[in-house]
Amino acid sequence: QVTELVLDNCRSSNGEIEGLNDSFKELQFLSMANVELTSLAKLPMLSKLRKLELSDNVISGGLEVLAERCPNLTYLNLSGNKIKDLGTVEALQNLKNLKSLDLFNCEITNLEDYRDSIFELLQQITYLDGFDQEDNEAPDSEDDDDEGDEDDDDDENEAGPPGEYEEEDDEDDGASDLGEGEEEEEVGLSYLMKEEIQDEEDDDDYIEGGDEEEEGK
Questions:
Q1: Does pTM surpass 0.70?
Q2: What is the pLDDT of residue 18?
Q3: Regarding the domain with residue range 1-145, which homologous superfamily does it belong to in the CATH classification?
Q4: What pLDDT score was predicted for residue 129?
Q5: CA distance 171 to 188
Q6: Which of 66, 98, 99 lies closest to 81, judged by CA?
Q7: Helix H segments across the chain?
Q8: So where are the chain's domains?
């Protein structure tokens, strides 16, 4: 039933990670960054896998295995590996659904006309190293992070004053989540007015107490 599996910084032994086998039939995302992987020969059959992260390993070839074991890959990250020539990458032609390929920090990126050659070789891909042929950036998780930052800013703006009003804010979390800033402001004003009324009543009590003392005298 597992659909996502992250094994970053684990250690592979003889080209495989113990426990990673054909039983992961529903796996759609697999990350094995920096696991000292030298080969893909022992990669299990993962027919539903769509995203494969293999960055910062020591893979230098044998990529033809991917089309056999992971035929539905749409995203493949091989950055930081030992891939040096176009002949090695040519094996990815059989990944018909591949849309995005990353080869950052591989020696192959030093080849003359590297980008044009890869796009010509792998005509099914749209993005290479995060950019298409017209140098337009691929939509990725960075956009999601930016939206998350905006959400954080909104939360800060909606938060009420600290201290004695935190309890009131907790009660109004539902309103905050809906972004109803005006309603929250009204609640805050009524709360403040209630505080002032109580203060005035306290003052009256104090004055009345003082009058009783004078009458006693």
A1: no
A2: 86
A3: Ribonuclease Inhibitor (3.80.10.10)
A4: 95
A5: 12
A6: 66
A7: 64-69, 86-89, 114-121, 141-158, 166-171, 173-177, 181-216
A8: 1-145
